[in-house]
Write a structure and sequence with these properties.
Strand order of the largest sheet of chain A: 1-3-2
Order of helices and strands of chain A: HHHEHHEEHH
Oligomer: homodimer
Strand content of chain A: 5-15%
CATH architecture of the largest domain in chain A: Orthogonal Bundle
Structural class of chain A: mainly alpha
CATH topology of the largest domain in chain A: Arc Repressor Mutant, subunit A
Number of domains of chain A: 2
Largest interface: A-B, 87 and 87 residues
Largest sheet of chain A: 3 strands, antiparallel
CATH superfamily of the largest domain in chain A: Winged helix-like DNA-binding domain superfamily/Winged helix DNA-binding domain
Chain lengths: 178, 178
DNA sequence: ATTTAATATTTCATTTCTGAATTATTCATA
DNA sequence: TATGAATAATTCAGAAATGAAATATTAAAT
């Protein structure tokens, strides 16, 4: 790994997380056995995710979408036969089934997806992007890629693989307890 | 870095993320220039954070708390003089000010914090844990540490530092655009 | 010293999300 | 082929979170 990414932020201006770290340090002094490093990592993940969410939403709002509705659309776009069920969508997006129903109602309203009963299994529902939905998704891409590049563009291929691999491992461990 | 953490999950059973990766791969085939690796990383962060949130909440619910209220308490516990303002709490937890007000109302109700006007700056409010709040926080620790150990316990010190450093860098880049 | 701008918190209407229960269908197995 | 268990989706009431506006106070600028 290159040495560019230490434990401290590369900017001089203290970012929002420095204050959190200070509090974690104080807590470590107060609580014997406090797993400081693990706590820092856990909080860091939250902060990164929240910021990512905000920044992406800024882009999507201009198109009448948000991170959740957009993700739902992308999961349909990326389905092998372009068709997906609500339960698949739920596990792919991490949203609860009840919320998926609401989100699909909304996307349906906007004419971005169609929703039909499955013929093979009549418990199921089949969701599919409309032409309009596909066009919207494709239209938003450039802006979002730019956004991603600003967040992750500084990393080498090796660093990307490491970061991905480590998080993949964390997720697998968490899934064991789910 | 050790070789234990590759890009694929260490378990044989495909976890919830494998399906997402498959969809990302399909999307890459459909969209020229699609930044597959960055997208995967972004989605991975979301999934990890969601799972972490769920698992931690399982523990906290038993104590009448959730991740947000708990974090708020911990940020007070870790304040230099044990006192914090709502705006500090907002930036430390990532919750919007309006939500902080609601959360503090709730914690106040439960007798876990006290809330008083600041004497130096009368715009401000000073939040502080009560004895009861401190005791609760300390009581929950062992369970949460166990939780953290299950998620992050498999990593070496070096891996923890790498993961933390990389995420720290990501956050710093995101904060530039905030 | 006013006036203006900035900061801190709260209020309120609205949106988003969740848990639990409900309905419908399919699967497993006796 | 009946019966109970499992799965899929939805409904609904309530909880949690947000955005925008309102209120109060302090800091900055003229």
């Amino acid at each position: 790994m290159s040495d560019r990414h230490g434990e401290n932020p590369p900017e001089d201006r203290p970012d929002s997380f420095s204050e959190v770290e200070r509090r974690i340090e104080v807590t470590r002094r107060r609580l014997r056995g406090y797993p400081q490093d693990q706590v820092r990592l856990a909080r860091l993940i939250i902060h990164v995710q929240k910021r990512q969410n905000e920044l992406t939403n800024q882009v999507l709002r201009r198109h009448g979408l948000n991170y959740v509705t957009y993700t739902a659309l992308m999961m349909m776009y990326g389905a092998e036969d372009q068709a997906t069920t609500p339960s698949e969508l739920s596990s792919a997006t991490g949203e609860k089934p009840a919320n998926i129903t609401r989100i699909c109602d909304e996307l349906l309203e906007q004419g971005l997806i169609e929703r039909n009963p499955s013929t093979e299994d009549r418990r199921r529902v089949v969701l599919r992007l409309t032409r309009r939905g596909e066009r919207l998704v494709e239209q938003v891409q450039p802006e979002l890629w730019q956004r991603l590049e600003r967040s992750f563009g500084g990393f080498s291929g090796s660093e990307m693989r490491q970061l991905t691999g480590l998080l993949r491992t964390v997720l697998a461990r968490m899934d064991q307890d789910a």
